[in-house]
Amino acid sequence: MPTSGLVITLSADAELAAQTRAMLMVRREFTVGERNDHWLPVAMEASDDAGSRDLHDWLHSLPGVEFVDVVYVNFDDDKYPPAAVDVRRLSQSDASQYEGENFLTTDAANKPGEP
After folding, report:
1. What is the domain partition of the chain in residue ranges?
2. How far apart are alpha carbons 115 and 52 in whole angstroms?
3. Would you give the DSSP letter of residue 109?
4. What is the pLDDT of residues 45-99, one digit of tens each?
5. pLDDT per position as a tens digit, 84-110
6. pTM of the predicted model, to two decimals?
7. Assigned fold of 2-75
8. Torsion sign (Cα): 85, 87, 91, 95
9. Dihedral, CA atoms, 56, 68, 20, 73, nearest 10 degrees?
10. DSSP summary character for residue 98
């Protein structure tokens, strides 16, 4: 399920901008943040990539939207395991949160001179 972080640039027309925000607030695909001048932070969730593109196109079609910036995208997919965490670089208290997870604990994994 793709989740996108967006910053929407709203119209300078205050009434049109307010109408656009209200339209987004009633759609379950969007979590709308607090407006800051002409910018509106929005989290968007879609069922798949095509759905995400459709929602993005719909946003662009709204009369109160000047521009849509995509600032973050997460493709939550279980087929990719989480990245290994090198707990050697964490404090003891921070490292404890990764107990039982996929993490590196030996120096063999990161020899000097190797990336």
Report:
1. 2-75, 80-107
2. 35
3. G
4. 998 889 999 999 999 999 999 999 999 888 766 554 455 545 455 555 555 555 5
5. 545 455 555 555 555 555 444 444 444
6. 0.64
7. Alpha-Beta Plaits (3.30.70)
8. positive
9. 60
10. G
